[in-house]
Amino acid sequence: MESSPVSSSSPPSSVFSFDLPSAPHSSDHDQQPSLRTVTHLEQLRVEEKVAEIYRILNDASPHTKTIMMELWRDNHILFLSRGLNQLGPNFRILDASRPWLCYWIIHSMSLLGESLDIEVENSIIEFLSHCEDKQGGYGGGPGQMPHLATTYAAVNTLITLGSDAALSSVNRDSLHKFLLRMKDSSGAFRMHHAGEIDVRACYTAISVASILNIMDSELVVGLGDYIIRCQTYEGGIAGEPGSEAHGGYTFCGLATMVLIDEVDRLHLPSLIDWVVFRQGVECGFQGRTNKLVDGCYSFWQGGSLSLIQTLLPIAEKQTQSPLTSIEHQTLEGNSDGSTSQVQNPENEDMGTEKGDDIGFRFIRMGTRVAAPLFHSVALQQYVLLCSQVLEGGFKDKPGAHRDYYHTCYCLSGLCVSQYSFSKTPNSPPPSRAMLGPYSNLLEPIHPLYNVLLDKFYRAHEFFFGMKKRGTI
């Protein structure tokens, strides 16, 4: 297994000593005209913008540096709060994504430690109830067809609200039937009736089933086989078999395999290699090989590495066993026709029954590594300096515009980075793990679901208690 770009020793308390990416020179283009593709020039422009930001930081006074590295919490809360109250006409294009807007905004506010007024919370619960289809699942708006993506967003929103009214508003019985209707013969899921089949659909279905405690063998059957087929020669996971590895799909595939307790079937060493080398000279993550850096991958790629920190014993065992590979698992069948599986050394902790309480057990396992698998302090530098907008909100890269999607996932990635040295997700991070003042610290999340950890515990108590009581 290739080593990560992070040294096993503790990282510096700041990244000011980094070798900054140099700006492109015209002579370079003259000498290598064959490299002047659109993608190449865009990459050079992004590197130049990021390098200029880092030069300003390096040349600034200590007081100015401190200000530059602050998380502008109040401005972000103001930006998010305005989005909950009223959105402009430009948002009409997102009419089919309204539960997503609820999730992006409310999850971001919860990360920042901001709570909602009871009136606002009740209005969100009421709105999402109008998005819930009578046959199960949530649509993108009232009267729209149910969709797995907006179902995930709606459920995560209600869990983030966390009240009895929010949690009890979910019709788990009809939602389970909806998930079964979306189940495909391939083992994967469709996003909606007659819709596309991909790893994103698999994750949103299983994440919802797991956190609501409605997972069963019917939902899981054949799912691991499908996701294994999506792991590429590079090690990352594609949206569907035969496609290119992608950061968002890699997180979705990896998290799904954890939640169905089949993560040992993935080839984790190559997956680790692919993800760690997506952190580029800008200090942020790219989503695909040879693509531009994007702040949202602070979570999609950083979150994957956060999960893998708990799974390292499995990856190490696979490294020691040459036969532990995708080809061996999928092509070398057993005598009874089934495929071989690597034994998970953590099964005694996570549970082996499908639908078991894996999300809760996974978070209790913690991590045994001394340092994260990525340069978490560098990632915080990219998010705070290159994605943060002074007026509030986050964007994907310098020159782009802020939006609620990137605000949500930049903050989620910042959170993952801050807690990357913690043995458990809710233990306070050491000072060396933080960039900027300690007031930058966000609330911890459950990395499998991307909801606040205390909200996960609240939902776990609520929905697993329902099952013990024999109620729906």
TrEMBL record:
Record keyword Chloroplast present: no
One of the Pfam families matching this protein, by short name: Prenyltrans
Example GO biological process: prenylation
UniProt entry keywords in alphabetical sequence: Metal-binding, Prenyltransferase, Repeat, Transferase, Zinc
Highest taxon above the source species: Eukaryota
Gene3D superfamilies recorded: 1.50.10.20
Biased composition (Polar residues): 329-345
GO molecular function, one term: protein farnesyltransferase activity
Keyword Aminoacyl-tRNA synthetase among UniProt keywords: no
GO-annotated cellular components: protein farnesyltransferase complex
Reaction catalysis annotation: L-cysteinyl-[protein] + (2E,6E)-farnesyl diphosphate = S-(2E,6E)-farnesyl-L-cysteinyl-[protein] + diphosphate
E.C. designation(s): 2.5.1.58
Cofactor note: Binds 1 zinc ion per subunit.
Region annotation (Disordered) ranges: 1-35, 329-354
Domain Prenyltransferase alpha-alpha toroid: 72-451
Biased amino acid composition, Low complexity: 1-18
Cofactor needs: Zn(2+)
Assembly with partners or alone: Heterodimer of FTA and FTB.
Function: Catalyzes the transfer of a farnesyl moiety from farnesyl diphosphate to a cysteine at the fourth position from the C-terminus of several proteins. The beta subunit is responsible for peptide-binding.
Similarity comment: family membership: Belongs to the protein prenyltransferase subunit beta family.
Protein name: Protein farnesyltransferase subunit beta
